[in-house]
Amino acid sequence: MFKAIRIDKAEKSTTAALTRFDEAELMEGDVTVEVEWSTLNYKDGLAVTGKAPVVRRFPMIAGIDFAGTVEQSSHPQWKAGDKVICNGWGMGETHLGAYAEKARVKGDWLVRLPEGMSTREAMAIGTAGYTAMLSVLALEKHGLTPKHGPIVVTGAAGGVGSVATAVLSKLGYHVIASTGRLSEADYLKGLGAAEVIDRSELSGPAKPLAKERWAGGIDSVGSTTLANLLSMTKYGGAIAACGLAAGMDLPSSVAPFILRAVCLLGIDSVMCPIGLRKAAWSRLASDLDRTKLAEITHEIGLDEVIGAGAKILAGQVRGRIVVKIR
Hints:
Layout: E1 2-9, E2 14-21, E3 31-39, H1 42-49, E4 60-61, E5 65-73, E6 83-87, E7 102-105, E8 111-112, H2 119-142, E9 151-153, H3 159-170, E10 175-179, H4 185-191, E11 195-198, E12 214-219, H5 223-231, E13 233-241, H6 255-259, E14 263-266, H7 274-287, H8 290-295, E15 297-301, H9 305-313, E16 320-324
Parallel strand pairs: 9-10, 9-12, 10-11, 12-13, 13-14, 15-16
Antiparallel strand pairs: 1-2, 1-4, 3-5, 3-7, 3-16, 5-6, 6-8
Helix pairs in contact: 1-9, 2-3, 2-7
Protein backbone atom coordinates (compact mmCIF):
# COMPACT_ATOMS: atom_id res chain seq x y z
CA MET A 1 0.00 0.00 0.00
CA PHE A 2 1.14 3.56 -0.68
CA LYS A 3 -0.21 7.10 -0.46
CA ALA A 4 -2.03 8.50 -3.49
CA ILE A 5 -4.63 11.07 -4.49
CA ARG A 6 -7.50 8.94 -5.74
CA ILE A 7 -10.36 10.24 -7.88
CA ASP A 8 -13.64 8.34 -7.88
CA LYS A 9 -16.85 8.78 -9.81
CA ALA A 10 -19.79 10.12 -7.81
CA GLU A 11 -23.39 10.28 -9.07
CA LYS A 12 -23.02 13.49 -11.08
CA SER A 13 -19.47 14.52 -10.28
CA THR A 14 -16.12 13.22 -9.08
CA THR A 15 -14.46 13.12 -5.67
CA ALA A 16 -10.76 13.42 -4.90
CA ALA A 17 -9.08 12.35 -1.66
CA LEU A 18 -5.64 11.48 -0.32
CA THR A 19 -5.84 7.82 0.59
CA ARG A 20 -4.01 4.49 0.49
CA PHE A 21 -3.71 2.63 -2.81
CA ASP A 22 -2.90 -1.04 -3.32
CA GLU A 23 0.18 -1.64 -5.51
CA ALA A 24 -1.60 -4.69 -6.95
CA GLU A 25 -4.08 -2.28 -8.57
CA LEU A 26 -1.43 -0.47 -10.61
CA MET A 27 -1.96 -0.73 -14.36
CA GLU A 28 0.20 -2.61 -16.85
CA GLY A 29 3.67 -1.30 -17.60
CA ASP A 30 7.23 -2.56 -17.81
CA VAL A 31 8.77 0.00 -15.43
CA THR A 32 7.83 0.69 -11.81
CA VAL A 33 9.04 4.01 -10.44
CA GLU A 34 9.40 5.34 -6.91
CA VAL A 35 7.92 8.80 -7.41
CA GLU A 36 9.86 11.56 -5.64
CA TRP A 37 8.38 14.78 -7.03
CA SER A 38 5.40 15.87 -9.08
CA THR A 39 3.95 19.26 -9.89
CA LEU A 40 0.66 21.10 -10.28
CA ASN A 41 -0.52 22.04 -13.76
CA TYR A 42 -3.78 23.62 -14.92
CA LYS A 43 -5.01 20.21 -16.10
CA ASP A 44 -4.28 18.76 -12.65
CA GLY A 45 -6.42 21.51 -11.15
CA LEU A 46 -9.28 20.54 -13.44
CA ALA A 47 -8.91 16.88 -12.48
CA VAL A 48 -8.76 17.19 -8.69
CA THR A 49 -11.59 19.73 -8.53
CA GLY A 50 -13.79 17.97 -11.09
CA LYS A 51 -14.28 21.25 -12.98
CA ALA A 52 -13.82 19.50 -16.34
CA PRO A 53 -14.07 15.87 -17.49
CA VAL A 54 -10.32 15.29 -17.59
CA VAL A 55 -10.47 11.85 -15.94
CA ARG A 56 -11.65 9.09 -18.30
CA ARG A 57 -11.49 5.98 -16.08
CA PHE A 58 -12.18 5.30 -12.40
CA PRO A 59 -10.70 4.93 -9.94
CA MET A 60 -7.88 7.23 -11.08
CA ILE A 61 -4.70 8.47 -9.47
CA ALA A 62 -4.37 12.12 -10.44
CA GLY A 63 -1.21 13.85 -11.66
CA ILE A 64 0.10 14.17 -15.21
CA ASP A 65 3.86 14.15 -14.59
CA PHE A 66 6.51 12.86 -12.21
CA ALA A 67 10.22 12.47 -11.62
CA GLY A 68 11.72 9.65 -9.61
CA THR A 69 13.88 6.55 -9.45
CA VAL A 70 13.28 3.26 -11.27
CA GLU A 71 12.48 0.49 -8.79
CA GLN A 72 11.91 -2.39 -11.21
CA SER A 73 12.18 -2.70 -14.98
CA SER A 74 11.77 -5.30 -17.68
CA HIS A 75 12.35 -2.66 -20.37
CA PRO A 76 15.80 -2.93 -22.04
CA GLN A 77 16.51 0.79 -21.74
CA TRP A 78 15.93 1.12 -18.00
CA LYS A 79 17.32 -0.47 -14.85
CA ALA A 80 16.79 -0.06 -11.12
CA GLY A 81 18.33 3.17 -9.87
CA ASP A 82 17.86 5.17 -13.09
CA LYS A 83 16.50 8.70 -12.63
CA VAL A 84 13.59 9.38 -14.96
CA ILE A 85 10.94 11.93 -15.98
CA CYS A 86 7.48 11.17 -17.31
CA ASN A 87 5.07 13.75 -18.78
CA GLY A 88 1.64 13.17 -20.26
CA TRP A 89 0.82 9.95 -22.16
CA GLY A 90 -2.63 9.99 -20.54
CA MET A 91 -1.39 9.80 -16.95
CA GLY A 92 -4.04 11.13 -14.62
CA GLU A 93 -6.60 10.74 -17.42
CA THR A 94 -6.63 7.17 -18.73
CA HIS A 95 -3.55 5.78 -16.95
CA LEU A 96 -2.95 5.90 -13.19
CA GLY A 97 -0.96 9.04 -12.57
CA ALA A 98 1.74 10.81 -10.61
CA TYR A 99 0.23 11.89 -7.27
CA ALA A 100 1.34 8.66 -5.65
CA GLU A 101 4.43 7.15 -4.07
CA LYS A 102 4.64 4.61 -6.90
CA ALA A 103 3.81 4.60 -10.61
CA ARG A 104 3.93 1.86 -13.23
CA VAL A 105 4.29 2.99 -16.84
CA LYS A 106 5.65 1.96 -20.20
CA GLY A 107 9.40 2.40 -20.49
CA ASP A 108 8.91 4.03 -23.87
CA TRP A 109 7.21 6.94 -22.09
CA LEU A 110 10.25 7.84 -19.98
CA VAL A 111 12.97 10.42 -20.51
CA ARG A 112 16.27 10.19 -18.67
CA LEU A 113 16.84 12.97 -16.15
CA PRO A 114 19.36 15.38 -17.69
CA GLU A 115 22.81 15.33 -16.11
CA GLY A 116 23.13 17.91 -13.36
CA MET A 117 19.37 18.31 -12.93
CA SER A 118 17.65 17.08 -9.76
CA THR A 119 14.25 15.37 -9.76
CA ARG A 120 12.91 18.38 -7.85
CA GLU A 121 14.18 20.78 -10.52
CA ALA A 122 12.65 18.57 -13.22
CA MET A 123 9.24 18.94 -11.62
CA ALA A 124 9.76 22.65 -10.96
CA ILE A 125 9.89 22.70 -14.76
CA GLY A 126 7.19 20.03 -15.16
CA THR A 127 4.73 19.75 -18.02
CA ALA A 128 4.25 23.52 -17.99
CA GLY A 129 7.94 24.22 -18.58
CA TYR A 130 8.33 21.33 -21.00
CA THR A 131 5.36 22.71 -22.97
CA ALA A 132 6.96 26.15 -22.97
CA MET A 133 10.14 24.67 -24.45
CA LEU A 134 8.16 22.74 -27.10
CA SER A 135 6.68 26.11 -28.06
CA VAL A 136 10.13 27.72 -28.27
CA LEU A 137 11.36 24.84 -30.46
CA ALA A 138 8.35 25.28 -32.76
CA LEU A 139 9.03 29.02 -33.16
CA GLU A 140 12.68 28.29 -33.90
CA LYS A 141 11.70 25.65 -36.46
CA HIS A 142 9.52 28.29 -38.10
CA GLY A 143 12.68 30.35 -38.47
CA LEU A 144 12.15 33.04 -35.84
CA THR A 145 15.20 34.56 -34.18
CA PRO A 146 15.64 37.59 -31.88
CA LYS A 147 16.42 39.80 -34.88
CA HIS A 148 12.89 39.30 -36.25
CA GLY A 149 11.33 41.29 -33.41
CA PRO A 150 9.47 40.91 -30.10
CA ILE A 151 7.85 37.71 -28.86
CA VAL A 152 4.64 37.99 -26.81
CA VAL A 153 3.86 35.54 -24.00
CA THR A 154 0.32 35.36 -22.64
CA GLY A 155 -0.62 34.14 -19.18
CA ALA A 156 2.92 35.19 -18.41
CA ALA A 157 2.73 34.86 -14.61
CA GLY A 158 1.53 31.27 -14.84
CA GLY A 159 3.61 28.13 -15.19
CA VAL A 160 4.00 28.00 -18.97
CA GLY A 161 4.36 31.76 -19.22
CA SER A 162 6.96 32.06 -16.48
CA VAL A 163 9.25 29.44 -18.00
CA ALA A 164 8.69 30.76 -21.53
CA THR A 165 9.59 34.28 -20.43
CA ALA A 166 12.76 33.11 -18.67
CA VAL A 167 13.91 30.94 -21.59
CA LEU A 168 13.15 33.44 -24.35
CA SER A 169 14.88 36.28 -22.53
CA LYS A 170 18.00 34.14 -21.99
CA LEU A 171 18.00 33.36 -25.72
CA GLY A 172 18.07 37.10 -26.47
CA TYR A 173 14.44 37.80 -27.40
CA HIS A 174 12.61 41.00 -26.54
CA VAL A 175 9.78 39.48 -24.49
CA ILE A 176 6.40 41.20 -24.11
CA ALA A 177 4.66 39.60 -21.14
CA SER A 178 0.85 39.75 -21.07
CA THR A 179 -0.87 39.23 -17.71
CA GLY A 180 -4.11 39.94 -15.92
CA ARG A 181 -2.11 40.66 -12.78
CA LEU A 182 -0.11 43.84 -13.35
CA SER A 183 0.96 43.58 -9.72
CA GLU A 184 3.29 40.86 -11.03
CA ALA A 185 5.17 43.28 -13.31
CA ASP A 186 8.32 43.26 -11.17
CA TYR A 187 8.22 39.45 -11.02
CA LEU A 188 7.98 39.22 -14.81
CA LYS A 189 10.73 41.76 -15.39
CA GLY A 190 12.87 39.76 -12.99
CA LEU A 191 12.37 36.77 -15.29
CA GLY A 192 13.58 38.86 -18.22
CA ALA A 193 10.45 40.47 -19.70
CA ALA A 194 11.29 43.71 -21.50
CA GLU A 195 7.67 44.90 -21.42
CA VAL A 196 4.57 43.98 -19.42
CA ILE A 197 1.10 44.62 -20.85
CA ASP A 198 -2.38 44.18 -19.42
CA ARG A 199 -4.29 41.24 -20.86
CA SER A 200 -7.20 43.65 -21.46
CA GLU A 201 -5.29 44.81 -24.56
CA LEU A 202 -5.98 41.36 -25.99
CA SER A 203 -9.43 40.67 -24.59
CA GLY A 204 -11.77 42.62 -26.89
CA PRO A 205 -13.26 41.33 -30.15
CA ALA A 206 -10.41 40.69 -32.59
CA LYS A 207 -10.14 42.67 -35.80
CA PRO A 208 -9.34 40.64 -38.92
CA LEU A 209 -6.03 42.55 -39.01
CA ALA A 210 -4.68 44.96 -36.40
CA LYS A 211 -1.45 46.88 -36.06
CA GLU A 212 1.58 44.59 -36.29
CA ARG A 213 3.18 44.33 -32.85
CA TRP A 214 5.23 41.13 -32.60
CA ALA A 215 7.05 38.57 -34.71
CA GLY A 216 5.66 35.65 -32.75
CA GLY A 217 4.19 34.49 -29.51
CA ILE A 218 3.46 31.70 -27.06
CA ASP A 219 -0.18 31.51 -26.00
CA SER A 220 -1.59 29.42 -23.15
CA VAL A 221 -4.93 31.26 -23.01
CA GLY A 222 -6.76 30.60 -26.29
CA SER A 223 -10.11 32.06 -27.36
CA THR A 224 -10.27 35.84 -27.95
CA THR A 225 -6.72 36.33 -26.68
CA LEU A 226 -5.31 34.02 -29.34
CA ALA A 227 -7.46 35.69 -32.02
CA ASN A 228 -6.02 39.07 -31.06
CA LEU A 229 -2.47 37.74 -31.05
CA LEU A 230 -2.88 36.46 -34.59
CA SER A 231 -4.33 39.75 -35.83
CA MET A 232 -1.33 41.65 -34.39
CA THR A 233 1.42 39.33 -35.64
CA LYS A 234 3.91 40.68 -38.16
CA TYR A 235 4.15 39.40 -41.71
CA GLY A 236 5.57 35.88 -41.79
CA GLY A 237 5.37 35.47 -38.02
CA ALA A 238 3.94 32.65 -35.96
CA ILE A 239 2.04 31.97 -32.74
CA ALA A 240 2.54 28.73 -30.80
CA ALA A 241 -0.78 27.76 -29.19
CA CYS A 242 -0.46 25.47 -26.18
CA GLY A 243 -3.37 26.21 -23.83
CA LEU A 244 -7.06 27.01 -23.44
CA ALA A 245 -7.45 28.71 -20.08
CA ALA A 246 -9.99 31.15 -21.59
CA GLY A 247 -11.78 28.58 -23.74
CA MET A 248 -11.52 26.28 -26.76
CA ASP A 249 -13.12 28.66 -29.25
CA LEU A 250 -11.13 30.79 -31.71
CA PRO A 251 -13.16 33.83 -32.89
CA SER A 252 -10.71 34.78 -35.63
CA SER A 253 -10.64 35.02 -39.42
CA VAL A 254 -8.39 33.75 -42.17
CA ALA A 255 -7.01 37.27 -42.75
CA PRO A 256 -3.75 36.86 -40.76
CA PHE A 257 -3.00 33.60 -42.58
CA ILE A 258 -3.65 34.68 -46.16
CA LEU A 259 -2.76 38.38 -46.02
CA ARG A 260 0.24 38.28 -43.65
CA ALA A 261 1.38 34.67 -44.04
CA VAL A 262 1.06 34.18 -40.28
CA CYS A 263 1.29 30.60 -39.02
CA LEU A 264 -0.55 29.05 -36.08
CA LEU A 265 1.62 26.33 -34.54
CA GLY A 266 -0.18 23.69 -32.48
CA ILE A 267 1.70 22.42 -29.42
CA ASP A 268 0.77 19.06 -27.87
CA SER A 269 2.66 17.86 -24.82
CA VAL A 270 0.65 14.71 -24.08
CA MET A 271 1.41 12.46 -27.07
CA CYS A 272 4.52 14.30 -28.27
CA PRO A 273 7.06 11.89 -29.91
CA ILE A 274 9.87 10.76 -27.64
CA GLY A 275 12.60 12.29 -29.80
CA LEU A 276 11.12 15.76 -29.48
CA ARG A 277 10.64 15.23 -25.74
CA LYS A 278 14.33 14.43 -25.34
CA ALA A 279 15.27 17.52 -27.36
CA ALA A 280 13.03 19.71 -25.19
CA TRP A 281 14.49 18.40 -21.91
CA SER A 282 18.02 18.77 -23.24
CA ARG A 283 17.35 22.40 -24.12
CA LEU A 284 15.70 23.04 -20.74
CA ALA A 285 18.87 21.78 -19.07
CA SER A 286 20.96 24.32 -20.97
CA ASP A 287 18.64 27.28 -21.67
CA LEU A 288 16.70 27.73 -18.42
CA ASP A 289 18.42 29.71 -15.67
CA ARG A 290 18.21 27.47 -12.58
CA THR A 291 18.43 30.48 -10.30
CA LYS A 292 15.32 31.95 -11.90
CA LEU A 293 13.66 28.54 -11.75
CA ALA A 294 14.25 28.39 -7.99
CA GLU A 295 12.84 31.90 -7.57
CA ILE A 296 9.55 31.03 -9.29
CA THR A 297 9.04 27.69 -7.48
CA HIS A 298 6.85 27.01 -4.45
CA GLU A 299 6.78 23.63 -2.70
CA ILE A 300 3.75 21.84 -1.26
CA GLY A 301 3.03 18.37 0.09
CA LEU A 302 0.74 15.73 -1.36
CA ASP A 303 -1.92 16.66 1.20
CA GLU A 304 -2.06 20.23 -0.16
CA VAL A 305 -2.64 19.39 -3.82
CA ILE A 306 -6.44 19.43 -3.85
CA GLY A 307 -6.63 22.88 -2.28
CA ALA A 308 -3.92 24.20 -4.58
CA GLY A 309 -5.85 22.81 -7.56
CA ALA A 310 -8.70 25.23 -6.90
CA LYS A 311 -6.23 28.13 -6.63
CA ILE A 312 -4.57 27.43 -10.00
CA LEU A 313 -7.98 27.47 -11.72
CA ALA A 314 -8.77 30.80 -10.05
CA GLY A 315 -5.54 32.31 -11.41
CA GLN A 316 -4.09 32.64 -7.93
CA VAL A 317 -0.87 30.71 -8.58
CA ARG A 318 2.31 32.44 -9.66
CA GLY A 319 5.10 30.50 -11.33
CA ARG A 320 5.53 26.82 -10.56
CA ILE A 321 4.42 24.51 -7.77
CA VAL A 322 6.38 21.35 -6.96
CA VAL A 323 4.73 18.54 -5.02
CA LYS A 324 6.90 16.56 -2.63
CA ILE A 325 5.72 12.96 -2.84
CA ARG A 326 8.26 11.28 -0.53
